[in-house]
Design goal:
alpha+beta; 3 helices; 79 residues; three-stranded mixed β-sheet; single chain
Amino acid sequence: MDAVPIHYAKTHLSRLIERARAGEEVIIARGKTPVVRLVPIPQGKKGRVFGAMRDLVTVDDSFFEPLSDEELARWEGRE
């Protein structure tokens, strides 16, 4: 895509945003000098997925046993 002048960009910003979101490179120029590139912000994950760690992590009965005095001291920063 050729560069668009700032005045055009101000007038048609919504259209330029949609073109950038569609993957087109949008360059805005001051006169004949390109000054900025309009790019979309990558969309991250929508949040946590329930059950995403299923079958990857196992917890046996020892998980629920009390910590030894030595382990408890390390957790509490007393060591």
